[in-house]
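Q: Hi! First time doing this. I have a protein sequence and I read that you can turn it into a structure. Is that right? Here it is:
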Amino acid sequence: MLSTFPRFTSSVITRHRKKNVARIGVYLFLFASALFFLLPLYIMLTTSFKSMDEIRNGNLIYLPYLPNVDAWIQAWSSACTGVACDGLRVGFWNSVRIVVPSTLLAIMLGALNGYALSFWKPKGATFLFGILLAGAFIPVQVMIYPLVKLLAAVGSFSSLPGIVAVHVIFSMPIMTLLFRNYYKNIPQELFNAARIDGIGFWRIFFQLMLPMSRPMLIVAAIMQVTGVWNDYILGLIFAGPDNLPMTVQLNNIINTTTGERLYNLNMAATMITSCVPLLVYFVSGRWFVRGITAGAVKG
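A: Yes, that's right. Below is the predicted 3D structure, encoded as structure tokens:
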């Protein structure tokens, strides 16, 4: 028996070493992946604080020698986005005007659809849910021309209500799926007890289901805000010249050539445009993880 003890000890040490090697490999992979995504962000951020003379020297990955915020100020207030030279501030407020109603309406309708499909189960609910879910797999480009004709027919093309309606329409499949799967994890007995007490459809939804949906509401808000804010093609087509979002104006700044290409200005404009999604993620990231684990991918 004593002779087997060294073998057992050696086996344990070997397994422990293998685990350590595997753990080191995982950490190296995660570090390389993080570096792959963070390096472009680092270059954009440092370049935005450099002067053009310093950029011409080719020191791409070095920190700025004399940091300045001139490019940021110009990108916000006086950069040319085509004919007008009002900077990104106009596009920023346009994006805010688009994002707020698009997020509130999409979340409310998605929560209502998920609630009805999970508890009330109207006739043909499974078939209707399948059709709605199929919309998530239809390319946006396929729907652009029919939506242009439809919105033009009702007089909402190239308007703020038109672009909000388009974002709400395209968000319905994923919003409904998120809330339906979340409500599927709520005990049916809770809903039955409310029905026995004589509570109706709307009162159950607003007083019972919505207060219990905080994690999923945050998940849906993060997804909708980042999706609408980062959108380019829908804003370009449906928003109209008076409501162009920030992404469209960013494209106009980068592609506008009036002599010298100002790389620091372009990088500053890009960083300003991405500030809102980054801020939303850093502020609500932990809630996003909680909402996902609370039922967003279950069912």
